[in-house]
Structure formats: C-alpha cells, structure tokens
Amino acid sequence: MALEEGARSCLLRVRNRLEQDIKPSYLMDHMISDGVLTVDEEEKIRTQSTRKDQAVELLELLLRKDNHAYISFYNALIKEAYDDLANLLHDDLPNISPSVYKSFPDGCTPYVQTVLSEGGVPQRPVVFVSRPELVNRIREKLYRLQKEPGWVTVFGMAGSGKSVLAAEAVRHHGLIEECFPGGVHWLSIGQLDKPDLLAKIQSLCFRLEQSLDSQSLQRPPNSLDEAKERLRFLMLRRYPRSLLILDDIWDSTVLKALDIHCRILLTTRNRSLTDSVSGSPLVVSLIGALLKDKPNRWRYYLCQLQQKQFKRIRKSSSYDYDALDQAMAASIEVLPDEHRDLYKDLTVLEKDIKIPAKVLSVLWDMEPEEVEDILEEFVNKSLLYVDSNNKPYLYYLHDLQLDFLVEQNRNELESLHTKVVRQYQQHYKDGHPTSGDDECLYWIRFLTYHMAKANLSQELYALMFSLDWVNIKAQIMGPAHLINDYVEYGPILDKENSEVRSHFQEFLSLNGHQLEQRPFPDVVQLALSEPHNSEVYRQALVKAQEGASRGKLYIDWLNKSSVESLSLLVIHPHQGSIYSACFSHDGTKIASCGASKMLKVFKSKSGEKLMEIQAHDEEVLCCAFSPDDRLLATCSSDKKVKVWNVERAMLLRVFEEEHEEQVNHCQFTNTTRRLLLATCSNDKFLNVKLWNLNKPSSQNTVFGHFEPVNHCCFSPDDNFLSTSSNDGTVKLFQVSSANEWKTINVREMFTESDEEVLVKCSTWTADGKRIICAARNDVWVFDVETSDMLLEIRTNRLSMVQYCHACPTSNLLAIAYSNYAVELWDLGSNKKMADCSGHLSWVQRVQFSPDGSQLLSCSDDQTVRLWETKKVHTSSAVCLKRDSDVLFTDEEIIVSAADNCNRLQVRDGRKGSVMFQSEEKSSRIRCTCMCRQLSAVVLGQEDGTVQVLEVPSGRLLATLLGHTKTVLHCQFSQNGQTLITSSEDTTIRVWRWQSGECKVLQGHKEQVRCFSLLSKSPTETTLLSWSFDGTVKVWDIDSGEKLQDIEAHREAILSCHVSPDGCFFATTSADKMIKLWCCKSWQCIYTLSGHQDCVRSCRFSWDSQRLATGDDNGQIRLWSVKDGSLLKICSRDGKDGMDSLHGGWVTDLHFSPDDSLLVSTGGYIKWWNVDKGEALQTFFPTGSALKKIHVSPDFSTFVTIDNIGILYILQRLM
After folding, report:
1. Which of 242-256, 293-307, 434-448, 478-492 has the lowest mean pLDDT?
2. Would you give the DSSP letter of residue 560?
3. Ranges for the CARD domain (predicted)?
C-alpha cells in the first residue's frame, strides 16, 4: 500500500523543518518496534556521518514506504516530545481500511497508537507480563460503555500492575473504533491536595482545547467547580463517546470532582471506592515459573501459599503485599542449595542496574558459560529478568525482588559486599579493567559503592586517594562520576584525611573540562600543575620521574605557587558559546544554553549531566527555572519561547506566534503565588510580554520601549518588572496592570558622548529599594522610589559590561565583562572585593546562588565556572602582558614584560622575585627586549617612544624619539651597541642608542611587525624585514641601503625565519602559502601549499634540513628543505572542543638542538616527535592564546605568558 498523496505532500512540505530538528536514532527505535523499519534500513541510516544526513536518509526512506510508516513516524514524534513537529503532520494522517488491521497482533494498529499517544496513555513497559484473562475482563466491562456513560474500576495493591492493565485494555482497535471514537484521555492522579487537583484538570482541559480551533480556547478555570464544569462540557460536547482514564485514585473526593457523567476507567488501591479487578504480575510470573517444571503441583503450591505464615519481611515498606513475599520465598526454596546461596549474592545490586554475566563470573569464581546457565535457571523461575536486546545479555532484578532480598539478608549486607570486593581484588590483582565493556563499566562505576557498603574504609582510602584510579575512572566514566564519589563518600574519606580528599576533589573540579577532551589527556601531566603541597602533585611527580627515566616527556611548572585558582568547579557542557546559565532555586542544579541550540541541566556539586535537550532551531539565548524548579523556560533567536518539564525532560508549552524577532531574555516570577513568565525581544514595539502558562497567548504586552529590549527582571516581591533597552532607558512596569510606573534614563548619564547607549541588563537589590543597570563599561545604581543615581561603578575602559547580578543575601554585586573577567563589588563601600579570573573569552552571564554562597559564570569559552563567594578575593598577583623577552643563563631565567598597570617588570623566573619595576607609563608598552652584556632593558610604546633602562637600578639610559606610531618589535645587536626597532608607521630604525644616532629604513607600505639579522656575527650588517604589505626587504643597516625588494605574497606576511646555516629563509602568509627562498639568489625555490588556513608561524630545524609551519586551524606540517616535499602532518587527530587542532592558532615553533623534538604554542603547548609527527605531551595553561614561547638552548626550560597574564616557567623532568 503506497503512501497517500496528502501524506506525501505534507512530508515534502515540512521536510526541511524535520531535517533540521529530529534525532533519527531516537525515532527509529519506535519505528522498528512497529515493524515499519528493518534493522538493515536502520543500519544504513546510522552509517550517515551527521545527524542531519541521517534525518535526510530517514525521510527519503519514509517517502518510499506506506501509510503505516507515516503513522508510526508520527507516533514516534509524539513519544519523543516533538509535539510541534507532530502537529505539522497531524492533519494529513492517512486513513487505513479495517481489513488491514488483521495483520496487527491484538488489534494494536497505527490508528490505536496515534489515539493513545495523543491521549497521553503510557507505552507498554519494557518488562511486561502478559495477562490476557484480566485484560479481556476489563475490555468486556468497557464494551458495556458503548451506548451510555459509566464507570469501570481496576483495583489492586501497590505494584500489582493496575496502570499497565488499564493501558493494555485500551490498546485495541476494535474497542476504540466501536466504543470510544472520540479518543482516550489519560490523567494520572496520585495523592493530591485541591490546588494540585485543580492544576491537573486545568492541564487536561488545556490539552483537549489545543486540538480545537483557536476560538475554543478559554482562560483556565479558577476553581474546582469551574474546572469540573469545563471538563464535563468538553467530554460531552466536544469529545462525545470518548474514554477518560483516571489512574491511581486515592481519595473519594477526587471521584466527586471528576463525576462528570462520561465514560470513565479508573485504577485504585482503595477497595472501598468500588468493586475490584486484581492480580500481581510478579506473583503470577513467580507461580507460573514454579508450575512450568512441575505442572501437577498446583494444589501443593496453592496450599503452601495459603497456609504457611511467612514473617512480615518489609515492615517499613509501603507495599502491603504478602503474596509477593510468599511467592518469592517459595521460588527460592525450590532452588538447589548451592544456587540459593548464589541468588543471595544478588542482594548487593543497585536498583535499576543491569549487569552482564561476566560480573557474576568474577563474584562466583566460575566460567562465564557456567554462570549463564545458572542465570537462565533464575530467569526461568522469574527470579531474575534478562535484557536480551543487549549483546551480551544483561540481567537485573525487579525493585520488589531486590527489596525482598535486602530485607531478608539485612544482617549479612556488609559481608555480602565484602565478598564482592574481595573477589574483585583477587580477579584483578594485576590492575583494574580498562576494556570499556559492560563488565568493566560496572566495576569502575560501583567498586567504591561496594567498598563503602562493606565498611572497608582502608581499601576505599587507598583506591580513591590514588591517581591511577582517577586516571582510569575519568577516562572510562568521565569526571562527574568521580566528583560525585568524593562528595558521596566524603564523610568516610575525611576520617582518614580530609585535606587529601579535598586535594583530589579540587583537582577534578578544576580540570574536569580537560578530562572530557578526546583524545584523553595525560592525567599525570595535568596533576603536575597542582600546588606543590597537594597529594595529587606528589603522586604525579613520582610517576612523572619514573616515566621520564623511561624516556617519556613530562613538564613541571616551577613557579605555579604564584598562581591561585579561585574556581570551585569548571564544567564544559556545550560545544559553542554559552549565553546563559542559572541556578535552580534549591541550588542543587544548574541549567545552561547557548550557540549549540541545546538546553542542559547538571548537578551543581559535580557537573554530572541530568538532562540534555535540543531545545530550539537556533541559538538559545536564555534559560530560567520556575520558583518551584519544576519548569524551565528557554528563548531563542528562532523567535520562540518554550517551557519544559525538568523532571521528565518534556516540552510543555511553545509560544511562537507573538514575538517577531529574536527573544533575548526570559524570567519567571520569584514565587508561585501568581506564576508568570516575562520575555523580551528585538521587536520594535511589542517587545515585552507576560505569559500565564495556562493560556496559549500572552496575558499582557507591556508597551513603552520602541527599540529592542535586552533584559527583563521581576522585583523581589514580583510587583514590578524592570526592562533594559537599546533606547538607553530602564523602565519599571506594574505587573498587575502592565502599566509603566517610571523610566530611568541611563543615556543621560553619558553626557560626554554622542554614541548610542545600549542598556544590557538590570538587577534588583534584595530589599527591592535599589535597581542596578549596566551600559557600556559602567554600572549604575539608582533609588527605585526617587530614580536618583546613588552610585557609579566605572570599570576598565577597554572592556564592556556584559551582565550584572545582585546577591540575594548580601550587598555584593557580580559583574561580567567582555575582557574575560568577573568582578565582585561591595555596593556599600563601592569597593572591588574580588577578581575572578579563569575564563578565556567574553563572560556572558553571572548569577549568585539563592543563598549567596556561590557564584556561577558562563562564557564564550564554552565553560561554566562556579566560585565560592567567601573564598574569592581581590587578586594581588600582577598580570603580565604576552609581549616579553627572556634571557637564559646557567643559574637564572630573566623575564621582562609589561604588567597590567603598564609598568615594565624584570623578574627572576626561578625565584619569582621582581628584579626591577618601572614607574607606570602614560603610553601603553607594546614590546621589550634585554641586552645581556649591558644589563639594560628596552621598552617600546604605543606613542612611538623607545626607552633604554638600566637593570636593576632603573636609571634611564636613553629616550629615543622618531617613530610616529606603535613600536611593535625591538632587538639589540650581538654586542649591544646597536638597537633596531620596527613600527606601525611602516619604518625600521637602527639606533646607535648611546649616541642617539639613527638610520631610518623606509620602503614598506604597511606595519612592520618583525625583522631578523641574517647573521649573528657582530660584523654582519644585513637585515631582513617583512610586512603586512606582502613584501620582504633586505637592508644594509650600516648604510641604510635597501639591497633587495621582494614581492613575496599577495596578502600579509605573518612570519619569516632564516635557516641556521644562513642559506635559506621561509615566509608564511594569510594567503595560506609558504615560500622557501634562497639567500644567495633571493629567488623563491619552492612554494609549499596544503594548509587550509592562514599560516602564522614557521621554524627551520637546527640542521636546516626541515621546516615546520603552523596555521590558524592548529595544524602543523613538516617539510623537506631539500626538495619541498611534505614529510609529516602533526595534529591530524584529536580535534578538541574549541574547533581547532591546537586550541587556537599555532603562534610559535621551536626545534630541540638534535632536531628530534618540536615544541609548539597555540591554545596550549605541545611537544612532538619530529620523525613520527606524534604528540608526546600537552601542557594546558590556565588561560589560552599564547603568543610565543622562549626556549632554553638545551631545550629543558620553556617560558611563556597566557592571555590572562600568568607567567609559566616550565621545566622538562629528566
């Protein structure tokens, strides 16, 4: 049967939308179980390289299939919460003739699946016991409702399977078609008070009204009586001959509220409510299993169960269910003695955990095949369940069976867990498993759990205070599981050594984002960056020294004591910028969203992921928890606002019609007293809206702004809403009326400038008396009543304020900046209290936890960082700029660089002491160099000034004036008598600096960023310069004569290097090309192509036989100088989350003296085996974007500065 034309047209019409949104892997499981998709077809789809390609292939296949496939696809969309996409297909659902239904077992046709999915009827559970006799009895009763309304009741104890029976009874085509053509509508009740019951009925009414025309939509009922009447009207007039299923009724008052004279099926555990249909699937399966082997023993087992008085095992249990205990005990009693003891061992399993036979093979010290035979016996007796969809099979206990075992063996729990640990230790005495299969995953995940339950404290200490264990578990399970272990077992570990526990927990918390990278980083190398007094560092140093003795390369950070990490936890939840992150109101969860279009929720203590949803079609700009943490709202560039159920990860509402531009911000009211959601957008006029979630359209549109609104925020008492706009104002609106109360004109605060003022955000102080707003690089505090400006916080002129948030419990204000910083200010004293450094790109959002103890920040660097409010403080460490010079001697490492106060510093790198510090300069210092012979240091400034200072006295030796723009590079000649500088003014100046004599080398048309002397000999006077104008020029610095003028590249030259033998030089360019030149003929001998991005760095090997080049995509290539051939490509594998092979541009390269090793800098530092092109080691700095690395002559010491000003003195361990 071919696909109907209407359905085909619909698929083609919405195809692009489906391809953008769906995850085929989720949908195909349902379609395979419906029999419309084969395993081979699934495999063909899965082989496509991207999610979108898989979606394209699935839709192509669907267009070639029949109506059943279309309906199955529609049902799969509903089951996976793609409600908006399913709605697009709904109107064109095909009609299937009744004759076709015969091919479906039990009459469960696509039509039935559609009706039940739309009505919210639960799917059949994975562990399903068929009870046709009971199902048919219920159906028989339901058929009696064909002609008139009435009630059918299913009664049973907790765990008896009432809900499954009710759902199974209506899973029948004939029943629905004949009796309930209006549909089947499921409502889960449970224990409810009146407000919750009203909310349930409101939700059902909303669901029923959603399928009707928009004119039928009404405001939600405000009382139970009104709700009852609305539901009665809908069921009798709009959905006649439909069935309402009320699941798990506890109280007769609920029945009264829902007595609306329609057709109702209810389930209850309260016999007094009505007559019953009962039975337990577990007891049925257990007794059935006993009779399978001995069918003539029915009377014996019945008598045994009726007469034998079992002691009540679970006195504290909520299950009043003697039959289960009796059936379990009877089933266990007929096991052979040796198997009975083996079954007892299953008591140690965790609920909902499936295990392979190999785990029990270790526990029981048996061959896997023998174990499988025993497990098959347990399965046959319904004492165990098997997941045969997995290969190898996985086994598990029902929760009730596990409860029975735990209570029966409560006094032996410790010894049973001890047995698990001892058997594991015996089996894996040579080392932990690392295969990554199901058995390995079980042991790595639960070994600590078994040790804790066995009270094996010493074994737990030894395991969790081991870097080997951290390495294995982080690699197999990820860092979040490890952090959870240190949190969960902290009370046990702290008895041994709380300081060591905190060392390991802090190491994982601050390096978790690195441990999620692939390829997996070297944990020992990461641990070498820990403080010297850390147990983690001590263990890493021992391992690194052992590894170094075997030839492995490890790097120690010598001066790390000068750097203190203030972050509490670093999480890497998204690929792409993170635009918003927020705490739940109980502080236990964090939600984040951003450029990845995903919404994620994770634990605030460990970063363990709890939920992940593709939330929108475009970037998600904001997310916010409701005050009870049950809901999450998101808004996006796709102009939609969505509301999600957090616990079920399910979409509840989509508001997509009213905002016509991107929605910038969303926020719920602070209390549930009157729950509203506020949103604001880039719309010109209708840009602020208030939503009642029970209404399909906005409750109010707030008028006042005529430019985009960036942010909206409720006052602490929810009486007012503040809005921040590109029109330069903050407006306060009364929430009850949506009327404007007052306007605060922030634009007037910037009297000295005519530039537009965009107000980024606003935040209320805890008492609601002050409102704080951010615009440009300023933060302003206003009195709410008078609109008077109380305080101005003026920040760094070079950065913009991105966001600010007032602490709900103190006078602190957190500010996020575009210069990667987060600051804490005290509003009372107007003093900066803390610098929180660590982010590597713009910080987009900050928020205090509800109790004010923590602060989170999120950034374009793809991380969320948590800070402990009390521990962060104003940093006394001076940040250095990346333009630097280093002198290596036998005893000393001397570093010169400008600091963040625009002073020049000269430091002893080993000791960390400051040898010299200049006064603060009025013009920014842009370059520096040192002269070994004269103990002098040079600084070049943005205003073109060059100064020579004596070290360490600081005496000014010379001021050299001549450059008219920024001095970009400076270098002494070998004897120190000549100083050469280059500038943005396109000139090079050669100074006899002691006399002030100067020669100007003119000819370049754009800035000259660097140059090189062609020989280190004091008598050689030839200089090579290169420029953004694409030319290389050769000069005689004595005469100032230009010797050569070479048109080298079409675009800017980014680097140039002269070979050590002086025969060649290489140039690299933004045109992605490398050129190799002969110094004798000045001719290009080879043009090397292959890089896919700007080639930013190059370096010859010391034997001048090889050339290394690095590009802006992080790729490094090694070339033969002899014939220009490509020898190796480094970094081909291991692309990281920063979408670069090196964490950024490759900015510098250096060979070791024997040319066997290569070091490169980018987002981090890597060392390479030159012959193999393989990475040997990676050092991750705290910051990123390293400009250059200084290397000692023996290749043992490496010095660099990152983009947040941290100096690294790194030494190779030998």
Report:
1. 293-307
2. G
3. 3-92
Distance CA(711)–CA(448), nearest Å, equals 46
Q: What is the DSSP letter of 1158?
A: E
Q: b/e for 48-57, b at 16 or more Cβ within 10 A?
A: eeebeebbbb
Which phi-psi region, left, alpha or beta, contains residue 962 (left: φ > 0; alpha: ψ -120 to 50)?
Answer: left
Sorted by where each starts, the structural domains of the chain and their CATH numbers stand as: 5-88 (1.10.533.10), 112-208+222-284 (3.40.50.300), 429-514 (1.25.40.370), 567-876 (2.130.10.10)
- The values of phi and psi at residue 440, to 5°, are -60, -45
The one-letter amino acid code at 661 reads: E
Over the range 456-495, which residues count as b (16 or more CB within 10 Å of their CB) and which as e? beebbbebbbebebbbbbbbbbbbbbbbbbbeebeebbee
Residue 751: band (very low, low, confident or very high) from pLDDT cuts 50, 70, 90: confident
Q: What element of type H or E holds 471?
A: helix 467-477
Residue 1105 has a CB neighbour count (10 Å cut-off) of: 15
Half-sphere exposure of 855 (CA within 13 A, CB side): 32
One-letter amino acid for residue 881 of the chain: K
Residue 284 pLDDT = 52
Phi/psi for 323 (5° steps) reads -60, -35
Contact 1009/982 with Cβ under 8 angstroms? yes
Q: Give the predicted TM-score (pTM) of the model.
A: 0.67
DSSP state string for 488-536: HTHHHHHHHHHHHHHHHHHHHHHHHHHHTSSSPP-HHHHHTTS-TT-HH
Q: CA nearest 758: which of 702, 786, 814, 800?
A: 800
83-90 and 67-79 helices cross at what angle (nearest 10)?
150
Band (pLDDT 50/70/90 cuts) for residue 735 is very high
Nearest alpha carbon to residue 504 among 460, 449, 440: 460
Distance of alpha carbon 702 from alpha carbon 679, whole angstroms: 10
| pLDDT for the residue 101 | 44
How many CB atoms lie under 10 A from the CB of residue 1087?
11
User: 266: exposed, middle or buried (C-beta count within 10 Å: 0-12, 13-18, 19+)?
Assistant: buried
Judge whether residue 97 has pLDDT over 60: no
Q: Name the maximum alpha-carbon separation found in the chain.
A: 118
Give the up-direction half-sphere exposure of residue 247: CA atoms within 13 A in the CB hemisphere: 17
Which DSSP string do the residues of 220-255 spell out, in sequence order?
PPSSHHHHHHHHHHIIIIISTT-EEEEEEE--HHHH
On whether the CB atoms of residues 709 and 724 are closer than 8 A, the answer is yes
The tokens of 1014 are what? 């062609």
Measured in whole angstroms, how far is the alpha carbon of residue 100 from the centre of its chain? 47
Q: Which tokens hold the place of 1136?
A: 């990281």
